[in-house]
Amino acid sequence: MEYEAVIGLEVHTQLLTETKIFCGCSTKFGAEPNSQTCPVCLGMPGTLPVLNKKVVEYAVLLGLATHSQIRRNNRFARKNYFYPDLPKGYQISQFEEPICENGYVEIETDNGKKRIGLIRIHMEEDAGKSVHNEDYVGENETLIDLNRCGTPLLEIVSEPDLRSPAEAVAYLSKLRQLVRYLGISDGNMEEGSFRCDANISVRPKGQREFGTRTELKNMNSFSHVQKALEFEIERQINLLKNGQKVEQETLLWDVQKNEARPMRGKEESHDYRYFPEPDLVPVSIDMPWFEAIRSTLPELPDEKSARFKEQYELPDYDIAILTESRDMADYFEQVAEYFKNYKMISNWVLGEVSRVLNETKISIRDFPVSAQRLSELLTAIEKKIISTSAAKKVFDYLLKNDHTVDQAIDKLGLKQISDSSAIETFVEQIIRENPSEVEAYRNGKTKVIGFLVGQVMRVSKGKANPQVVNRLLRKKLEE
Amino acid sequence: MSIKDIHESVLQGSVSVTERVRQALVAIKENKHLNAFTQIYAEEALQQAESLDQKITGKQKVGKLAGIIFAIKDNINIKNHRTTCASKILNNFVAPFDATVIERLKAQDAIFIGKTNMDEFAMGSSSENSFYGPVKNPVDSERVAGGSSGGSAVAVAIGACDAALGSETGGSIRQPASFTGLLGLKPTYGRVSRYGLVAYASSLDQIGPFAKTPEDLAYILQVIAGLDPKDSTSADEPVPDYPALIDKPIKGMKIGLPQEYFAEGLDPEIKQSVLSLADQLKAAGAEVQTVSLPMTKYAIAAYYIIATAEASSNLARYDGVRYGYRAAHAEDLNEMYQNTRSEGFGEEVKRRILLGTYVLSAGYYDAYYKKAMQVRRLIQNEMMDALKEFDALITPTTPTTAFKLGEKIEDPLTMYLMDIYTVTANLAGICALNVPAGQHSNGLPFGLQIMSGAFKEEILFRLARQIMQLK
Q: What is the pTM of this model?
């Protein structure tokens, strides 16, 4: 029997607000433990939360980008549970009335485009961190870092529309691309600013009812998600094939052992006793506010790639990479403002620029060769001032030196020689030095011309204009 | 002498602030057996008084409460002082910030003589549920002072301060004011910032003053009321010049007497006095009519569900992890929580946390919490309708005078019924106050309650003033 997987994902994404959701503390990652706290996020007696309106705005942006219905009157709720990194003994979240509902995200699959439904997106505060596995923590010790406590989160809950680990990863990538495009989250899974839990079940293909699901936690990268889902699907299918049942339980992904193992029982069955948060008044999003938020909505990935296709007539492969991030697309478009051979720009951005980005791990925003400078370099190639190979040398030079393209060409002495008399000297020299190739050419083996051009280029140190070299060589050889 | 008069005589130099603080400290010492205070800031108050006296002598500008001595309920934060909530679990907790009301009082040069005893976490109607022992009634020390703000009431009654701040969730200012013969105000929900008040039931809690005259209440409310960016539930409503409005005649004011508040269970003498005062208001030009508020009978049930539900969540933070009491022995985390909370909280607090946890639990939420919230909405609607017709409602504040210490402590239900006339104002979010209505043949004082619409405290002050003049 053939089985299919049914997967739904719950994603928590930390928002890039300057301050926390209910107090004025900074949200910066990596500060000294407990240095970014105040009485409010520490849950001191007598404190009260005050909502950071930016969080609402970011939630609305994501709602718009995912075609969701957006709630005009929002309420928060308390989710009650005891944990040492939860200072108030409850998390302020949303329950019955999430800010966004019924949206979708479109992904590419092997069978074309597919819509993945979103049940809800809601706002909530993050908890702190319990630290156990660090060298500075003693054996019977747990340390609490509350810097993260109160960092704003959006929780995005998908419908169980995903059918394979590959679809799950495609969905996660798309969602991460969206939050990055919107500038509301850095979407960094390794640092924990973009976290994912999965609900997963399998069923015989064609069956409508869902199977018993398990919940999978602790997947800290896209590849963990892929591996963990593959593991769990196989585990469940094997159980069913052997006539056993899938237990409804929560599993933790163990990165070291590459397996999912059950979480301890008591941490699973929580009664969170949700009730409306009495310390916060309902937040209503009126039309002027809504319109003001909507007006800040940037061009989204799907729109951008459609426009790139129309405006720059590039291959789909190029477009997918160029529009992967807003910054990359912006860089391309800034070059395209000055230089109109778009495919040539794309080749350079996908080639040299991407190579350097990968090697140096810097972001395109901080790329040392500005878009305008790259356009000057490409113009120099097009005007035959330098050859393509010389241009790569200039490019490498510009990575380290803040010079203009002209200055760099001068400095490197790479200006192309198109003057026939100068090139003629090189051509004569090569003919003299390679009598057998010259002989072969004259006997009809005209392919050796490539070798001879190369030799001329070598002695000219790459500066000779290859077309002039070609013309002069043929002329001399056919004399 | 009113607060305003005291302030003026201090400015004129006819009495020194230091002398006033010394007298207050003597009153505290003489009444130590009443157990009104959890902390006394004698030295600090004296230092502050001396510095104020110097400023006044030097003709420097001082605040409008310069010379006035306050006692503060021990669930309101004063920076760098303990906030105990009369609980073992917070016995050693030092507040890292000032409550907004404290900031506002400090800005006007008020002096804080100490923190007052109370029912633990403001849960109670007698101030007997305290880690520091019960508060006793100054008129008869065999009797309770009322609660939960009993210590604040007693502090004013014995002259340990000119006024005191208490907090209300279901009558915790009005009821002790009634039992000690004082005025006590529960402002409209949102009138006074709750920032720095340790939460019991967030949707009902409100800070308010105790004083000896309606003029004093008006004077203090003027200082502490108004929008606070730190409290989202504080109202963006203008603060009227309450002291200036208090003299406005009450002629033509429409007053309702809700019949449900004069029914079975009410002491006949109290009933007689309240009705007689209503008659006198009529004679003074008010229109007085009876009115029916049938939802009243559900108020206590709704109140104890909503208040305990919120409390069960608000008190979750006292877990021994970050501050306050932590149990000495525990094998693991859950045992640490259990032992800390079992040892740190008193019986009544535990009872309410359990009740509140129960009513929010899966399977019970709809039957209890949700239903109670619906009832609350109906009570609010009924109250709003009545207050469209009437400027104010007049009722007794409590069904009886102060009861004996220990008399009701073993019988929570009877104790809860002490709030029967007061909880409605909290559920409806309106303002209400207690004004002394007379002395019972048993020698104890009792009060009359005036309720008015949201942000209509001015009406309460005017009527209270009239009643004080009638007596």
A: 0.91
